[in-house]
Design a protein that fits this description.
This is UPF0223 family protein. InterPro entries: BH2638-like_sf, UPF0223. This protein is mainly alpha-helical and 92 residues long. It contains four helices and two strands; from the N terminus they run αβαααβ. It has a domain of 49 residues: BH2638-like (Annexin V, domain 1, Orthogonal Bundle), CATH 1.10.220.80.
Length: 92
């Protein structure tokens, strides 16, 4: 990984930063290997508690995708549409 995760060190607590980074890393894992649907959706729920604004979510998603090439929007959408207990694997 030679890129930076988009985080807000000014407004987020250390715990919130850890939770957002966990969500980003699960998205990354979905592209590089696979991730459990439940783990991803739990992390996304926590992410939405930290970033409730849809516009801020879109901004962070665009920055994340620009840096990494991975889309957390498409990853979460696939997880929501998949069957329970399924592993999520994304293609770049």
């Amino acid at each position: 990984m030679s890129y930076n995760y988009p985080i807000d060190e000014v407004f987020w607590s250390k715990e919130e930063i850890i939770d957002v980074v966990n969500f980003y890393s699960l998205v990354e894992k979905a592209y590089e290997n696979s991730v459990k649907k439940e783990d991803l959706l739990i992390a996304y729920t926590r992410f939405k508690q930290i970033v409730p604004s849809k516009s801020e979510e879109k901004q962070l998603g665009a920055k994340f995708e620009k840096e990494s090439g991975y889309s957390f929007y498409r990853t979460v959408r696939q997880a929501k549409e998949s069957q329970s207990g399924q592993l999520i694997r994304m293609k770049k």
